[in-house]
Amino acid sequence: MRGDPAIDRPCYREVGGAACRCGGFRDSGESAVADGTAARQAPAVGRRLIQNAVLTLLLVVMGLALLYAYRSQTPSIPQVSVTEAIADINAGNVKTVTITANKATLELRSGSVPRKQTTVAVPDQLLTKAIIDYNAGNPSKQVELRYLEESQSLSVVGSIVLSLLPVLLIGGFFYYMMRLAQRR
Fold first, then answer.
1. What's the rounded mean pLDDT across residues 119-144?
2. DSSP one-letter string for 23-65
3. Lowest mean pLDDT among 62-71, 79-88, 150-159
4. 129 CB contacts (<8 Å, ≥6 apart)?
5. Does 7 have pLDDT greater than 80?
């Protein structure tokens, strides 16, 4: 085979999807016809892109729906007014009161609700006076009063960003996958 003389024929090679630059095929007078695979692949790629876009949109919407459902849950500690909190203290239903900034959490001795929360003025005088008066009148069932420092490590914006982080990561992943599919 190596000894056979070279056959002069037109070039049928393609380099990187483009026709060969040698001009052998063009000069031969023959015409090339596409086999149709590229035409069949174009709708499949477009269909796949649409499916990926719909799937991404569906996942983002579901993620936002889950976020909304999580954020709209009722608080675990029911809110009561200051007068109702004072009435609970005077009735002897409260074991401990913890005051943090402008929130007072009442830990009850018994009942179906173990804790209640109320909003108090920043220099709290009403609730503290009610506890002191109750403790003076009932030395056997004292109400413990605790003051805690406010430790707000994350602001509201930080809380929202942390809540949206999984949705953003999933959306970013699917955006990356769609871009990768478009390049192919």
1. 88
2. -HHHHTT------SHHHHHHHHHHHHHHHHHHHHHHHHHHHHH
3. 150-159
4. none
5. no
Distance CA 70, CA 75 (A): 11
**Token representation of residue 43:** 């709708």
Q: How confident is the model at residue 75 (pLDDT cuts 50, 70, 90)?
A: low
Q: For residues 141 and 96, what is the distance between their CA atoms, to the nearest angstrom? A: 11
Instruction: List the one residue out of 109, 106, 104 whose CA is nearest residue 119.
Output: 104
C-alpha to C-alpha distance for 7 and 1, rounded to whole angstroms: 12
Q: Are strands 94-100 and 144-148 parallel, antiparallel or unpaired?
A: parallel
Q: Does this model's pTM top 0.70?
A: no
Give the number of other Cβ atoms within 10 Å of residue 166's Cβ. 12
Report d(CA 45, CA 34) in Å as an integer.
18
